[in-house]
Amino acid sequence: VSTSSCWTAVSNVGAILKCEAIVLIPDGGGRLAISGAFPPQDELGVREYSAALWAWEKGESAGWTSATLPSSKWLFLPLKTAQGIHGVIGVTFGDDKGLPPADRRILDALTDQVAIAVERTQLVSDLQDSRVLSETERLRSALLSSVSHDLRTPLVSIIGAATSLLEADDALGAGGRRQLAETIREEGDRLNRYVQNLLDMTRLGYGALKLNRQPSDVRELVGAAVHQLGPVLRSHRLILHVGGELPTIDADPILIQQVLTNVLDNAAKYAPQGSVITVNGTAGKGEVKIVVDDEGPGIPRED
Question: How wide is the angle at C-alpha 206 spanned by C-alphas 203 and 210, nearest 5°?
């Protein structure tokens, strides 16, 4: 439950009853914690917290003027609705006088209203969490499907080429064997790139991917990516506009080359055979921009 909503609730209680008020809600670990207070405070004494804990666990009032832990200067009431107990609200008037019946009725009514407000906020939060979880699962399924397809494609080629080498070696001749061996190597490199991407995604998720920045030549990075994808780009017409006027950049050369390789690989994958793939490099104020253009369908605007 947001701290701002709890602060609004307790400030209203404090203003109406002219008292200090506090709301405690279970935190992520299930421990009762202060969620809002008027005036602001961030801790309770041991006696007061014990009374709050009793009210929460037993669903009964505890503390000042009650039958349980009456030595506490705070009176705690459970925030109960039909769905259960959502926390407790506490009030203190700063004196030892009893609570007049009229004020107690007002306090009970306000407690019911706060309980409903807290429950409503929690329901909204639970709904949002449910939506996030559903979207996360949908994205996870889409990612697994995509990864499975990308890994299976080179594996099928490798297995097919290796099987042909084993079963038809005599009929292939030197040229055929070399072609199949090149297929295995190319698809193996492709598979290695996918696995490296997956490993880097995992390292990114755990914050373990560290940058090794150093002065890097843009032309060399583009050239290395193009060389790595030589067989993949073979069926396209590649145009490079990456001139010597581009300045040296401060970057991790291995990761930047990996980025360029992934983008070029994606362009070759979705652009028609024989189409043009263009790489443009331009220098601006404090930056170098590298743009890869292809003649594929592109990403739908709604996505």
Answer: 55
